[in-house]
Amino acid sequence: MPVRLFQPYPSYRSPLRVPPEERVSCPVPVFFIRYRYPHHSAASGYDRLCDYVGETIGLSRTFYWLGETVLRPVGMYLARAGGHFEYSRYDFVLELEAMRHFLRHRNSVYHFVYAEKSYYLMCRLAGRNGNRLVGTVHHPPEHIQWLFRSTDHFRRLDLVIVVSRAQLAYWTRLLGEERVRYVPYAVDTTYFSPSNEERDISRLRLIFVGHHERDFDLLAKLVPRLLAEITEAELVMISRDARCGEIAASHPRAHWKRRVSDREYLSLLQSADLMILPLRRSTTCTAVLEALACGVPVVTTQGGIEDYLSNQCSRVVPPGDVDGMLECCRGLLRDQERLAAMRQAARGWAMRFSWRETARKMVALYAGLFGEEATVSQAGED
Q1: How far apart are CA 126 and CA 91, in angstroms?
Q2: In a structure prediction context, what are the per-residue pLDDT tens digits for the chain, which is 382 residues long?
Q3: Are residues 160 and 221 in the same domain?
Q4: Contact between residue 113 and residue 49 where contact means Cβ atoms under 8 Å apart
Q5: Structural domain containing residue 29
Q6: How far from the centroid of its chain's Cα atoms is residue 59's Cα?
Q7: Residue 223 near residue 247, CB atoms below 8 Å
Q8: Contact 10/34 with Cβ under 8 angstroms?
């Protein structure tokens, strides 16, 4: 059977085009080692940064075929040798491509947008050709111990970008304060925006999205109680986790959608009155930013996600606090005036986290790696 070129490999190409005027110029060459998670919509994902600045390193035909033949066993071994982290044979092949690119260029930045997943062998080239290695890390510090047998490869990075201040202590201890910076995740505020259609005031729609680090035990306890009290409310759960099916089976106004199209996902967000998102732990959360950008207030759980929230458009409760989350949801859903004010505030707050603004902050850091002035203002600070 013929091998279909590139089909098995995760996409490294941009699904959307950003107008040239929206891109941010950089005084130094920047090359991204990009990955797109398949569950993200076309407008979602941290790799959207690559659309606003620099260039993405693509997989050549040569390395594709090597990865499918003679290098395949090596890639599979490396994918199992470093612990439970997500590094795959596909990451191995793309990293080899990036290493070849690295050796042909000088005084450039090489940025791994998901460093815990894609960065491993490149550490061997640290310091060569005047190039700089940058990696963005996304996992909570509690994950690092079981993700990696060794974190030595991270010590060779010139700069680590964290997406939550909750990560700063761990990475500062590992690398030193001068090599760690917080730059916020972002959201496409053009694509994710409130609907112009009139809101149906006869019903209240709650929405839950995702699977990673979601607290399904809390959700299962919360939903029957909340829907029993707020009889005009319905809950839509968008998740691949089968536990949502069990929750949906327990109440007629709870609905589970395992997969939805990008268009339906946007429509469901825009029509929601409130996002409920119990989490076990967090740094950032794509769904939260997308909800806020669509003008949807959020009730969630304490963790690193607070860097992206304001009391004007969200409520946060301690982990595992079913009663606290129930009280927050009930109070907001029964106070339509407050909920309307929070919807308006949500959109304004989300605008602080646009990709263009985050790209500007990244460019300042890239330039700083080569001795230029680099001042990064933090999102959410006045």
Answers
A1: 18
A2: 344 434 445 556 666 788 899 999 999 999 999 998 888 889 999 999 999 999 999 888 888 888 888 888 888 887 777 666 788 888 889 999 999 999 999 999 999 999 999 999 999 999 999 999 999 999 999 999 888 888 999 999 999 999 999 999 999 999 999 999 999 999 999 999 999 877 766 789 999 999 999 999 999 999 999 999 999 999 999 999 999 999 999 899 999 999 999 999 999 999 999 999 999 999 999 999 999 999 999 999 999 999 999 999 999 999 999 999 999 999 999 999 999 999 999 999 999 999 999 999 999 999 999 986 544 444 444 3
A3: no
A4: yes
A5: 20-185+354-368
A6: 23
A7: yes
A8: no
CA distances from 94 to 63, 103, 205, 237 (A): 8, 14, 42, 35
Smallest CA-to-CA distance from 290 within 341, 243, 238 is with 238
* H helix or E strand, kind and range, residue 245: helix 243-249
- CA Rg, the chain, in Å? 22
Same-domain check for residues 80 and 102: yes
Q: Of 159, 185, 175, whose CA–CA distance to 374 is shortest?
A: 159
Total domains in the chain come to 2
Position of tokens 């707020």? 230
Domain annotation covers residue 5 = no
Q: What is the pTM of this model?
A: 0.91
Distance CA 278, CA 313 (A): 16
Same domain, 338 and 360: no
Nearby residues of 63 by Cβ (< 8 Å), 6 or more positions away: 93, 94, 96, 97, 100
Q: Name the DSSP letter for residue 11.
A: P
